[in-house]
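Protocol step 4 of 6: structure prediction from sequence.
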Amino acid sequence: MTDTVKATTEKATEFFADVRVKANEAAEKGKKFVTEAVEFNKANVDAVVEAGKIVAKGAQEMGKTNMEFAKTNFENVQVAVKELTAVKSPTDFVKLQGEMARKGFDTAVAQGSKNTEAMVKLVSEMFQPISNRIAVTTELFKKAA
C-alpha cells in the first residue's frame, strides 16, 4: 500500500505541477493579450486625436481663406458702388450692373470651387489616420483567422 500511496502522491504532485505551469502560461498569455489590447486601443485613440487636430487646423485655414474672400468681396462692393454712382446714363448703368453681376457670379463660383477643394482635401487628410488604423485592424483579423 505504501507504493500505491507513493505513486498516487507522485502523480498528484506531477498533475498539480503541470496545472501550475499551464496556469502560469495562461496568465502570461492573458497579460500579453491585455497589454496588446491596451496598446491597440491607445493607437486608436491617438488616431482619432490626430484626425481631430487635422480638422481643427483645416477649419482654421478655411476660416482664414473665407475671411480673405469676405474682405476682398467687401472691397469689391465698395468699388462697385463708386462706379455705379459715377455712371451718367441709364444705359451705362445697366451695362455696368450686368458686368458686375457676371463678375460677382464668377467670383462666387471660384470661391465655391476653392472651398469645395479645400473641404475634400481636409476630409481626406482627416480620415488618413483612421484609415491607417482600419488597415492595422484588418491585418490583425487576417492573422487571427
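Step 5 (inspection) to follow. The two ends are 52 Å apart (CA to CA).
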